[in-house]
Write a structure and sequence with these properties.
Strand order of the largest sheet: 2-1-5-4-3
Oligomer: single chain
Strand content: 15-25%
Length: 597
């Protein structure tokens, strides 16, 4: 729940801006990273492919040189003069010497026609030595046959050495690559010889040293035994200041091999020749992307520019989207303060514009409804006040006047004067043009006049008592609130009793609230009838003399109190059948003085 609240903002403008910003930042970072990685990988792939093509070319060229040497060896192997020379018992004889001269001439022609061939030498097991040079330049026979190229040429196999210093001639130590092959004469057991062809090392060196694989990349060649044939830093290799992963290279097939060197990655592109040499191209990925930092800087720069532009657009867009909503919010706050004349001036055609138009329509309808409610409330109060002010209905007047006439006919002049005086005060109080509120003392005086008239009409039918605390006399209350309550007590509680009834009116102050109770010892009522009293409304009975109109006066009093003082005040009832009824009236106390009419 807290995580959800963390991402909630009070302003929709902030929410939209943050959402757009997060989306743009994430997209920009992902695109920038992917662009950089793809560019880097593409450059690396292209460079590795380029390296493969170069080492393939180198391998093809070297294979061509070696094949040429093999062709020369094959040509000499089939030379009849050499075979004849091998079978001679005394190669130093005159016939042998003539054969040597002929063979040497052939070898000289071959060497002079090929600049990649450094020397050709043939040594027989019978002590014969034939070279493309003068015999005096050669080392002795025992020294020659002790060298590796001679001893490793066995079983008619072709031996190709790594780069080495040749020790065939006196005072000459050229770097060469030697190819030696054993020859056999007609006597396949004893009559043998070894042919040596030296390839100029400069051919391999020139071929490989001109290959550029970045600032640090290079090409080297290793034979099948793990000896270096060529390396641009061969002297450093021999002093063990630098090393190459020879074992990994020999164990690996053709392709790429990725290794670590001093925390830097390097890629070895390997190609194996048909005679077992492995040509290795070394490239450094971080150098292949030669302008790696420049690419990173460019990616960051353009990513930042795009990010700033996108964030600016998102802020402007969020402000544009949220501005009409904020405007509508400001209009709503004015409505909260009671200003229903405000209108949302938003004319755009999107959902916010539709919401603004609905808001304006709503305000018009609310204002019309408020006017209607005020008008109906005013009519209701006016009608109720008029109805309440005319509580003395014709039936009551008719009956009271008939009682006065009857008393006059029977010469009860004192009673006539008393009833007429009480009726006059009642009429004057009821139809008076004074204020809606009167003092409690005036309301009690009116109630006493009403009880006087009713007690004289219903002779010896009931007695009454009015007990009001003195502190209530100056308080204010609405006109004619107690008469309907007493009227209900007489007509519906006491009138039909056989014995004499009693009505008691008690007024006191309870916690700052005026509380007046009207109690009778009449017939009472059950719960169903009691609950229906305050549910009665205007128009439910023809007059207050009718039993059908029992709840009308009570409902008027209760509703009038709540309209004037609020719903916290009104009437409450307690009643039991044959036990009587108690009505409690509660209204707030006001200490203002009221002038008597």
């Amino acid at each position: 729940m807290n995580k959800r609240r963390f991402f909630r903002f009070k302003s929709i403008h902030t929410s939209i801006a943050v959402a757009f910003s997060c989306l743009i930042i994430g997209t920009t970072l992902i695109l920038s990273y992917n662009t950089y990685r793809q560019s880097s990988d593409s450059v690396t792939e292209n460079s590795v492919q380029y390296t493969n093509e170069l080492i393939n070319q180198v391998g093809t060229t070297i294979e061509t040189y070696i094949d040429n040497m093999k062709s020369i060896s094959s040509l000499l192997y089939n030379n009849g003069q050499i075979r004849q020379y091998l079978t001679m018992t005394d190669p130093h004889s005159e016939v042998g010497q003539s054969l040597v001269n002929a063979i040497e001439s052939s070898l000289q022609v071959i060497v002079q026609s090929r600049n990649d061939i450094s020397a050709i030498l043939f040594i027989g097991s019978n002590g014969a030595v034939i070279s493309d040079r003068e015999q005096s330049a050669l080392k002795s026979y025992p020294e020659l046959i002790a060298q590796d190229w001679y001893t490793k040429a066995k079983n008619d196999a072709i031996y190709i050495s790594s780069s080495e210093v040749e020790h065939v001639y006196h005072n000459e130590y050229p770097w060469v690559i030697s190819m030696s092959q054993q020859f056999r004469g007609d006597d396949r057991i004893n009559k043998t010889g070894v042919l040596l062809i030296d390839l100029n090392y400069t051919i391999i060196n020139d071929l490989c040293s001109h290959i550029q694989l970045g600032k640090r990349g290079y090409v080297f060649i290793v034979n099948s035994e793990g000896d270096l044939v060529y390396h641009p830093q061969q002297q450093i290799i021999h002093t063990n200041l630098k090393s190459e992963p020879i074992k990994a290279i020999l164990a690996s097939g053709d392709g790429q091999l990725s290794l670590k060197e001093n925390e830097h990655e390097k890629i070895l592109s390997i190609r194996t020749t048909n005679f077992g040499w492995k040509i290795v191209g070394v490239t450094y990925p971080e150098e292949l992307v030669g302008n790696k930092k420049k690419m990173q800087l460019s990616t960051v720069l353009w990513g930042s520019v795009c990010l700033i532009i996108a964030l600016g657009i998102s802020i402007v867009l969020s402000f544009t989207l949220s501005r009409p909503i904020k405007k509508l919010e400001a209009n709503m706050k004015q409505v909260e303060q009671g200003n229903f004349d405000i209108r949302a001036d938003i004319t755009q055609a999107d959902e916010i514009g539709k919401l603004a138009r609905s808001f304006n329509v709503m305000l018009v309808k609310i204002k019309d409804l408020m006017k209607q409610i005020v008008h109906e409330e005013a009519l209701l109060r006016t009608s109720e006040i008029k109805a309440l002010q005319s509580q003395i209905n014709p039936h009551f007047l008719y009956n009271t006047l008939e009682s006065i006439i009857w008393m006059a006919e029977t010469n009860k002049m004192r009673e006539v004067v008393k009833m007429t005086m009480a009726l006059s005060k009642m009429l004057r109080y009821s139809i008076g043009k004074g204020e809606q509120e009167v003092s409690v003392s005036m309301e009690m005086e009116h109630l006493a006049n009403y009880l006087t008239v009713q007690s004289m009409r219903y002779t010896n039918k009931f007695s009454y008592a009015i007990e009001v605390e003195p502190e209530l006399q100056g308080c204010r209350m609405l006109r004619i609130m107690l008469q309907p309550l007493v009227e209900n007590a007489i007509y519906h509680g006491i009138r039909r009793m056989e014995e004499r009834g009693h009505i008691r009116i008690v007024g006191r102050m309870v916690d700052g609230v005026i509380q007046i109770t009207v109690s009778d010892n009449g017939l009472g009522m059950d719960k169903a009838k009691l609950q229906g009293l305050l549910g009665a409304g205007p128009g439910q009975g023809p007059d207050s003399e009718s039993s059908k109109d029992q709840g009308l006066g009570v409902w008027n009093v209760h509703h009038r109190i709540q309209l004037f003082y609020g719903t916290a005040y009104g009437l409450s009832f307690e009643s039991e059948p044959e036990e009587g009824t108690t009505v409690t009236l509660r209204i707030p106390c006001s200490e203002l003085e009221v002038k008597d009419e």
